[in-house]
Design a protein that fits this description.
Strand content: 15-25%
Bound molecules: FE2/S2 (inorganic) cluster
Largest sheet: 5 strands, mixed
CATH class: Alpha Beta
CATH topology: Ubiquitin-like (UB roll)
Structural class: alpha+beta
Distance between the termini: 27 Å
Number of domains: 1
Number of helices: 3
Order of helices and strands: EEHEHHEE
Oligomer: single chain
């Protein structure tokens, strides 16, 4: 499964190999990545798994659903063109090297 990297607001980064068949959020919470709160458990309704996807990766991910798009409208951190809900990104081997940043507002 893919090696993924989370850049944290303190300037550090956490990189690990994600398990098979999980979302980016599940991989993060399973590994204990700081700032991925996932309060709704993956329902695309809380916005606390908001991440900024590396621009190089943003266009390679499927477009957000209407539900994800709506929730991204009220996240704690500013929405950027590269904003995604980590719970809506299902990981596969194609995501090898995926890199995202956790907004400082989610600490
Ligand atoms: Fe709530 Fe992703 S876990 S929106």
């Amino acid at each position: 499964m893919p090696d993924i990297t989370f850049h944290l607001s303190d300037g550090s980064e956490v990189g690990f190999e994600a398990p098979e068949g999980v979302t980016l959020m599940q991989a993060a919470t399973g590994y204990g990545v700081d700032g991925i709160l996932a309060e709704c458990g993956g329902g695309a309704s809380c916005g606390t798994c908001h991440v900024y996807v590396d621009p190089e990766w943003a266009a390679r991910l499927p477009a957000p659903s209407a539900r994800e798009d709506e929730t991204l409208g009220f996240t704690a951190a500013e929405r950027l063109p590269t904003s995604r809900l980590a719970c809506q990104v299902m990981l596969s081997p194609d995501h090898q090297g995926l890199s995202v940043t956790v907004p400082a507002e989610q600490r």
